TrEMBL record, chains A, B:
Record-given protein name: 2-keto-4-pentenoate hydratase
Keyword list, A-Z: Metal-binding
InterPro entries, A to Z: FAH, Fumarylacetoacetase-like_C, Fumarylacetoacetase_C_sf, Rv2993c-like_N
Pfam families for this protein: FAA_hydrolase, Rv2993c-like_N
Source species, domain of life: Bacteria
Residue span(s) of domain Fumarylacetoacetase-like C-terminal: 66-259
Span of domain Rv2993c-like N-terminal: 1-32
Family membership: Belongs to the FAH family.
A GO molecular-function annotation: catalytic activity
Provenance organism: Streptomyces populi
Gene Ontology BP terms: small molecule metabolic process
């Protein structure tokens, strides 16, 4: 099943995505999932929009937005960093989220490398504390795609990632949440203007999402709607005028145009 | 005016805090404030609870939770750090929030210093981007108090602050939002079991909240309900069995008992 958030009548509405249409739902499948199965969240259909006309919003607005940094061996080697010995997370800000199809705005003040990072995203469906690995596996509601857009000069110069990774529009997430996929057996492909810039096995991670959830929930209660971005193996430069697509097989394609600041198009 | 969030009938409800009672409100004053003044948010009273019986929740659940690190000259000198040359923020996680009166739980795994940090918190009431200093001033809806509870061994050892500052219950915030106070002209006092451990001028900051909002909104849209924790001049150790009070004159007292993990009292 594919669940998305779309704009309908000026409101954010959950939808079930079919081949031709998006069925608008009476509520959130994430709030229902503790009581029912993902395929029967007890929601009613309140309308329909043609899929081609849908305005996609961030796949979920998480209560807490977790992000993994160094998690792919090739990326770690590329950064000259040490392989982490335990799973550690950071945070991103919801203010940076944007949906599939919406522009990534490159700030005028960014002069260094401006890059896309293609990431698998786990969307949590259950409340979890002191989880076992199996409980962590069972807690994932579904999977979506994130682009951890980064301004490298700010990333290296600032004390935190506050603007390098959290400026407005720097966190596209979508297009939807896929509940029926073996996410770690897929391939992640990054394209700019249709040209492949990176492709890697999605599951080739130092620690998998369940390892992270076991570690996080030793100290922190994870809740439905929380997201865990899993890091990237490869990145690439993007510039205004480009269209950046991230495909994860079995999930979908997250596509966003890049615009310069001050251009409202 | 003092606005709080309290638990009523198992739900979180906004309230207006008087001397004897908390008047329960039909909605959030933060969502009304773009249209009206803080003193007339256009809300109706739907019930009353005696103030002595109120169960206090975090004063607000912010869309984005900003936190300032080094911002008081004495604290910076104590840390041996350089005085920041521009305002930079980090993030905390809503999962760590708890209300006035609720326990701070010290994890069993924490062996090093476990400390309280008394902080002024600005609560934003307007949507803000590319703000001037005066627009930033006008955007603050009111002020509350935060305790940036920190486990120092984790803070120094981990790559991020994920568990050192964001474990469950590590972010008490409350008891309420005070809209009528000159917050930067107050005194912050930290007490453990009634004994004063620190007292400092609340406004003795390197950069004030408006400086931060000007800098943040160069890159990021700030929205109603966002909070900005302003850092602390002094900290002190806390242990299970203690009660830690943070008073900011003109705002109120945030009081929390400290409990060991595994003790449900």
């Amino acid at each position: 099943m594919r669940y998305a958030r779309v704009s309908a009548g000026g409101r954010a509405v959950w939808g079930r995505v079919g081949e031709e249409d998006v069925e608008l739902l009476s509520g959130s499948p994430l709030e229902a999932v503790d009581r029912r199965t993902p395929d029967d969240p007890g929601l009613t259909v309140i309308g329909t929009v043609p899929r081609a006309e849908a305005v996609w919003l961030p796949a979920v607005v998480p209560p807490v937005f977790y992000a993994v940094g160094l998690n792919y061996p090739r990326h770690i080697a590329h950064c000259g960093a040490e392989v982490p010995v335990r799973p550690e997370v950071g945070y991103r800000a919801n203010s940076a989220l944007t949906g599939h199809g919406s522009p990534i705005v490159k700030p005028a003040a960014v002069t260094g490398r401006f890059e896309a990072e293609p990431e698998l995203v786990a969307v949590i469906g259950r409340t979890l504390r002191n989880a076992t690995y199996e409980q962590a596996r069972a807690s994932v509601f579904g999977w979506t795609i994130g682009n951890d857009v980064s301004a490298r000069d700010w990333q290296h110069r600032d004390r935190t990632f506050w603007r390098s990774k959290n400026s407005d529009t720097f966190k596209p997430m979508g297009p939807w949440i896929e509940t029926d996929v073996d996410a770690l057996a897929q391939t992640t492909t990054l394209r700019v203007n249709g040209e492949v810039r990176a492709a890697f096995p999605t599951g080739d991670m130092v620690f998998d999402p369940y390892d992270y959830l076991v570690e996080i929930t030793r100290h922190i209660t994870v809740r439905p709607g929380d997201v865990l971005w899993m890091g990237a193996e490869s990145t690439c430069r993007i510039e205004p005028g480009d269209t950046v697509d991230i495909e994860i097989s079995g999930i979908g394609v997250l596509s966003n145009p890049v615009r310069p600041e001050g251009n409202s198009a």
